[in-house]
Amino acid sequence: MPIWVAATLLAGLFQTWRTALQQQLRGQLSVNAAAVVRYLYGVPVGVLLVVLYLTFIGGSLSAPSWDYLLFCALGGLGQIIGTNLLIMSFGHRGFAVGTAYSKTEAVQAALIALVFLGESFGLLSWVGIAVSVGGTLYLSLAGRVASLRDVAAATVQPSALYGLGAGLAFALCALAIRAATQALDGPDATLRALETLVVINTMQTLMQGSWLLATERKSIPDLFRTWRSSAQVGALSACGSACWFTGFAYAPVALVRAVGQVEILFTLLFSRFFLRERMKRTDVIGALVVVSGVVLVLLGR
């Protein structure tokens, strides 16, 4: 199995696990504070991953350039903006719609990479990207819309527009991260990805932490009061980001994000076997469509 595929599958698992644990922080932390703990507690975990990699695999750290730091800043800011847009979409009572349209990130990334970076894929990969995104949309919207007309109507809702904006921000974030890993001069793509994780998480801690300090100063003590849960969220977030960054270092963003749609399968499995919720027929159909899309992406690769 290619490194980028294994890393992407692990990224989806870690992200689902982190999201499940982060639910425990709801009611304990504000939205901004909950975002900060992902980065704040993720930095030491990222440093640990770099140290462990250097110890057991070997290699040496790369000297960052100004271009590299710029791409890191853009990637970190893009993730923050995308997360905030997604949360804004929830505020319009459109959790499912906002989430669904944010998942168009893979298609948006593919189009941006094609136009600006000249990245091209085989026809089968394009079909796979479309199928996997379509399966995710189906899983998110099934039972909430009755026809294609309803889907079109949902597209102009504020929640959908914010969701599409979030997808665009996440796509640009992923492209910036890929550019950052390629801007380093080290020969080991995995080590470059881990270095980039530490740099971006540090920048994000400073960016969103400064915003929290300026707007919600009284939330600062809560970051440390909830350290037991927050540290777990930060650790899983760092591990997930390390896997995403590794995938981006080895393969085009659109392909990584398309395979990453398996995240929704982990969500369904978590729902079924840990929360003991029954899976609906639409869940099974949507899951099979997502898997089919991922298979086509890999075959087209």
Automatic annotation (TrEMBL):
Residues 3-140, 160-298 form the EamA domain. Keywords: Membrane, Transmembrane, Transmembrane helix. InterPro entries: EamA_dom, EmrE-like. The chain crosses the membrane at residues 38-56, 68-90, 110-139, 160-181, 258-275, 282-300. This is Membrane protein. It comes from Roseomonas fluvialis.
